[in-house]
Amino acid sequence: MPWRERFSLTAVLVVAALAGLPWVLAWLGGTDTDSGLAVTVQLVLINTFILAVYAVSYDLLMGYTGILSFGHALFFGTGAYALGITVKHLGWPIWGALVLVVVLAVVQALLVGVLSLRVRGIYFTMVTLALAEGFYRLAQANDFAAYTGAKDGLHGIPLTGWLSRTDHFTRFYLTALLFLLVMYWLARRLVNSPTGRAMQAVRENESRAAALGFNPLAYKLVALVVAGVMAALAGAFNALWQGFADPGFLSVDMTIEALLMVIIGGVGTLVGPILGAGVLEILGDVLNRLFGPRWPLVFGLAYVLIVLYFPYGLLGTWRQRATQRRAGWARLRRLVVREG
């Protein structure tokens, strides 16, 4: 069976397993899906699904367009605050708030792109960092404390009805899984489209892409807008899930978290960042239970080992070694046929 068909079959089985996991765990534990081990696992996986969308959005920038941004948390945090303020203070419905999040993300990405994409390398990185830091300080400012909560953050975002995280916990889990699948499908459609291939041409050699008639600035802007919208929706979904929006959502630490997930899973793979989010969230949860407050130190050591033994990320290294194995088996078959 070709590897693409094997991969598709594996993906379907994994999604089916994740969808049925709450009922399997509830059956094993003798509880319902909203309590016991089932709810503990769902807690970790909901965080993983949301962070995976955020990581995939960052992979579109770094892995497929060659843009290293230190300000990606700007979109994540803005999405969280926009949803929180409109739902809590303005009384908007969830869907209306999500539409506003998308509009704000597009406008924000266009502004960031126009201001920063004309410079390259470290200069672009520093401009994005400065813009994100500006919004981070703005969220902490006391002038808007009535809406943002300043340094304490915006707490008490209400969520009732069919998506209530307290009344319909498993429904929220399935919605988060569906959110990840839809965002991944959109990202995959983009990178396999002519626009996505032009983005990758810009990543490989911007000058050559320009010589062939592509406009690098336009394709970078497309990548930034799509990645910004995905990150903002992830931030909004995170605010729905957590029930608050915090200045930490806009901090450089949040951007570094996306960078870690992409590097751990594999740059330029889309599936890799999802694996990276799983490793970061699940391994972090396990280490926290084992080592308490010292878990970041242990995780740092684990991260060093992953980088040493999987230099292209988990998925990237696996693909490279699979290619080497197939080439080795092909050489062996040729030798056997020749000797025969």
User: What is the overall pLDDT average?
Assistant: 89
The tally of domains stands at 1
Report on the biggest sheet: 2 strands, antiparallel
Round the Cα radius of gyration to an integer and report it: 22 Å
Strand residue percentage: under 5%
CATH architecture: Orthogonal Bundle
Poorly predicted regions are none
Distance between the termini: 26 Å
Strand order of the largest sheet: 1-2
Helix and strand composition category: mainly alpha
Number of helices: 14
**What overall form do the CA principal axes indicate?**
globular
CATH fold group: ABC transporter involved in vitamin B12 uptake, BtuC
Using the coordinates above, name the CATH class: Mainly Alpha
Helix content: over 70%
Q: What is the chain-wise order of helices and strands? A: HHHHHHEHHHHEHHHH
Instruction: Count the beta strands.
Output: 2
Please, could you describe this protein's structure?
This protein has 340 residues and is an all-alpha fold. It has one domain: ABC transporter involved in vitamin B12 uptake, BtuC (Orthogonal Bundle), CATH 1.10.3470. It is built from 14 helices and two strands. It has helices at residues 3-29, 36-62, 73-88, 94-116, 121-140, 145-148, 169-191, 194-204, 206-211, 216-242, 252-265, 271-291, 295-309, 313-339, and strands at 154-155, 244-245. The chain has a two-stranded antiparallel sheet with strand order 1-2. Helix 1 (3-29) packs antiparallel against helix 2 (36-62), helix 2 crosses helix 11 (252-265) and helix 11 packs parallel to helix 14 (313-339). The longest helix is centred in the N-terminal third of the chain and has 27 residues, at 3-29. It is globular.
